[in-house]
Structure formats: structure tokens, C-alpha cells
Write a structure and sequence with these properties.
Number of strands of chain A: 11
Strand content of chain A: over 45%
Low-confidence stretches of chain A: none
Largest interface: A-B, 28 and 28 residues
Structural class of chain A: mainly beta
Strand content of chain B: over 45%
Number of helices of chain A: 0
Mean pLDDT of chain B: 95
Number of helices of chain B: 0
Radius of gyration of chain A: 14 Å
Oligomer: heterodimer
Shape of chain A: globular
Number of strands of chain B: 11
């Protein structure tokens, strides 16, 4: 049981290049998330997918696109990378138990992708 | 504008003593709060949570206190151990959109042997 895996671990891009960050989870979770972590800023939500087939914007979606490929996989794409997108990117997943009021569960995070845009 | 704030970037504590990490929030709609722990080059891992219907939740050496009127929560670690040295993030979400979590900027805890 690997949990949440992310590839690649490190990446250096030039301004204007594109790339896709991959994320997969093997916990059969409904929801998946992409965050970025910048010094002094904590983690900020970029996009999330509440369930397979849906995606929604988070706090900082500009410059990114996402695809929920299936229940396991959620990718983040940078179409034209900018130096402001230099960051550590974390993928997370979560299982929500819904009832009359949803029972909150915690998110499980991957190890992160460190991206530098020159 | 950050809705969740951790105003102490770092904290140093002697092994065996109590560590108290603080977190403030501005959004009165937040009703679920979590603490995560993060080691270098790893993703955050869940530590403990509390819903707004409680004012305290305890799990072993870790206790989270919630003061809704002050919009303040704190994490107490007793006794502190060197392995607790890490960055601690608090996070909050609201029932009206429980998929959106807002994180503080983190407090780096150093527990000295």
C-alpha cells in the first residue's frame, strides 16, 4: 500500500515550457487535491476533485489545469511555466463519509514535487 | 489575506517540557480544524483534529484546544521529544465547502535533547 505517490520528485523548467505533474493514490479515496507550498505561505489549494469526473478551482488556480483521469489519478499541468510557479507541489487524497452531515477525514499527502522555473 | 495565521515561525523547547503551538483564524464559518506535522522532504502527515462542537481533543501526548470566541486554537505536546522536531501546520475548513482547507504558514519546532 503505497498511499499517495507523485512523479517526478524534482524538475527544472525554463520559462514557457510545459509539464505535467502526476499523482496517484491506492486508498480508494473519492477526493484529490493539489497544493503548492511557498516559504512563509503555508500550503495553498490550487485545484481539487471532489469525486471522479469533477474538478474545481481552489485559492490559486491561475496558470494551472488539472485532469482527474480516473479514481486513482489526478494530474496537474503547467501549460507555460513562469518563475512565479517555482514551488513545492503536494498532491493529497481524502475519503469523505457522507451522511446527514459529512464526517470529516484528514487528507493524506504525497511526498511532493520540487519545481524550479528559470 | 491569510485566513489562518501562525504567528510564531519557530519554537525551541527542552526535551520533556511542554510545547505549545498557536494558531489564529479569521473566518467564523470555519468549523473543523486540523494539525499536520511535516518533516523535511516529506509530505505533511495528519496529527490531530477538532470540530467546533468541542473545545478539546486529546490523543496521547497531543492535545488540541479550541477557543471559538477568540478564534484561536493551540496544540500542546507533553512531554516533548526530539522526534517531535518538525514543522507544524494548522488548517481549517468550513461545512459549506469542506473540500477547501486553509493552512497556516507553519511553526518550526525544535526539541532539544
Amino acid at each position: 500500500n503505497a498511499g499517495v505517490t507523485q512523479t517526478p520528485k524534482f524538475q527544472v523548467l525554463k520559462t514557457g515550457q510545459s509539464m505535467t505533474l502526476q499523482c496517484a493514490q491506492d486508498m480508494n479515496h473519492n477526493s484529490m487535491y493539489w497544493y503548492r507550498q511557498d516559504p512563509g505561505m503555508g500550503l495553498r489549494l490550487i485545484y481539487y476533485s471532489a469525486s471522479e469526473g469533477t474538478t474545481d478551482k481552489g485559492e490559486v488556480p491561475n496558470g494551472y489545469n488539472v485532469s482527474r483521469l480516473n479514481k486513482r489519478e489526478f494530474s496537474l499541468r503547467l501549460e507555460s511555466a513562469a518563475p512565479s510557479q517555482t514551488s513545492v507541489y503536494f498532491c493529497a487524497s481524502r475519503s469523505l463519509l457522507a451522511g446527514a452531515s459529512p464526517i470529516y477525514n484528514e487528507q493524506f499527502f504525497g511526498p511532493g514535487t520540487r519545481l524550479t522555473v528559470l | 489575506d491569510q485566513q489562518v495565521k501562525q504567528n510564531s515561525p519557530s519554537l525551541s523547547v527542552q526535551e520533556g517540557r511542554i510545547s505549545i503551538l498557536n494558531c489564529d483564524y479569521t473566518n467564523s464559518m470555519f468549523d473543523y480544524f486540523l494539525w499536520y506535522k511535516k518533516y523535511p522532504a516529506e509530505g505533511p502527515t495528519f496529527l490531530i483534529s477538532i470540530s467546533s462542537i468541542k473545545d478539546k481533543n486529546e490523543d496521547g501526548r497531543f492535545t488540541v484546544f479550541l477557543n471559538k470566541s477568540a478564534k484561536h486554537l493551540s496544540l500542546h505536546i507533553v512531554p516533548s521529544q526530539p522526534g517531535d522536531s518538525a514543522v507544524y501546520f494548522c488548517a481549517a475548513s468550513a461545512m459549506n465547502n469542506f473540500n477547501k482547507f486553509y493552512f497556516g504558514s507553519g511553526t518550526k519546532l525544535n526539541v532539544k535533547p
